[in-house]
Amino acid sequence: MPDADLRPDRTAPRAPCSPDRVRRVGAGLAFVALALVAAACSSTGSTDAGASSTTSAAPTGVTETGSSYGSIVALQEAIVDGGFTCTLEYPGLRDDATDNEVSICTIGTEIAYLTIWGDPTRLTEFASSSDGSTGTVALGTDWSVSVTSEDLAGRLADALGGTAPSGSAPATTTTTAP
Length: 178
Known about the structure:
Layout: H1 19-41, E1 51-53, E2 67-69, H2 72-81, E3 93-95, E4 100-107, E5 110-116, H3 120-128, E6 137-139, E7 143-146, H4 150-160
Antiparallel strand pairs: 1-2, 3-4, 4-5, 5-7, 6-7
């Protein structure tokens, strides 16, 4: 069999970086990256741009009859209507793990972290945590805006119909969850 000598030796190790292997691995990584970007950018949340008032059980430090916003865009519009400049860095992104919608904007010289909370229990946990009770967070029935200063958090809470735990809110609307 003279042809047997011309066949490649399949038992010999292949070069770890052969051009074919690099192309296959690169294509696979590109596909995974695209899938992750698509998943991160997908949004199945409400697009209701209006605010409403609710009387549902409110988390600790959150107003019971405070404002509720259906989307980051609605929250951002309310901030602007309240007399603040707030241009979203990106449209609201949905966190699939928590069902929160998030974005950021700059108000004055401070970065503001905007969140529409998908789960009231998680908002309650946040409001009672060290991060949520610093006085630098404005809280509503389903939203929060985290900033750097207590003064801005209080002014935002007043403008948005919410509260800042050590900031401002009408005393008649603040409740503690059982």
